[in-house]
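Good morning N.,

You mentioned wanting to compare the apo and holo forms, so I went ahead and generated the holo version with fe (ii) ion. This is what I fed in:
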Amino acid sequence: MKEELVLYEEGAHKCIMFSFDDEEHEDRFLSVNQFLIIQKDTAMLIDPGSQAVYDEMYDAVERLIGIDKLKFIFFSHQDPDVAGSIAEWSIATSAKIILPGIWVRFMSHYGVMDMNRLTALPDHGAKIPFGENYFQFIPAHFLHSPGNFSLYDSRSKILFSGDIGAAVLPPQDVYKEVTDFEAHQPFLEGFHRRYMAGNTFTRKWVEKVRAHDVDMIVPQHGAVFKDEHTDAFLTWFEELKCGGDLIDEIY
Ligand SMILES: [Fe+2]
Ligand SMILES: [Fe+2]
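and this is what came out, ligand included:
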């Protein structure tokens, strides 16, 4: 089932979150969020997801702005829940497809035939203009993927954080916005401790993020962080021990 939530709307700039859940297969399906940023007659699609959600996402983009207006599609990393439909999008649109450089050569295994369609992000990231504003691709390497970026939208001040901040919420208690960080923490804990590579990386990412004026952090799974919860999350993540810090728990 798909839900749409407008995260930001002012003038001609709009950010929309799509959320897919599968109540019938809740123990096997990982719920996902996708995002569309529209400014006037141009748009960026973020982490569009797998083939399981492709048709509905295509219809949503077509309805909200028109497929031909899609100028950029950004994949934060290579995972199937992020990039599983990259071949379909590369065929169906003429958008510039942006992804971490180290994953480009792997995309033929998702069925991408024309590698010229792909734009490789260098490790340090990039800044690109978008209408009157800009997007900043912030390195998020090893959080969790070795080649991984978060995307900052300078207009909405939203940070699209990929798997960082992801929560695995109980199916009977799914909410879209964090209202109590302490109560939310248990749903972050297991995912981040196991999927994120270590405190060296979480600390570096938080330092980079804090250099921007961030109002909202929106992850690819679970609920969005706004207002004081944005800072609460950054403080928690900065201190988190995870991955290699806990090596004896998994070896
Ligand atoms: Fe992932
Ligand atoms: Fe994910």
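Helices lie at 51-64, 80-83, 86-92, 181-195, 199-210, 227-239, 247-250.

Happy to go through it together on a call whenever suits you.

Best,
F.
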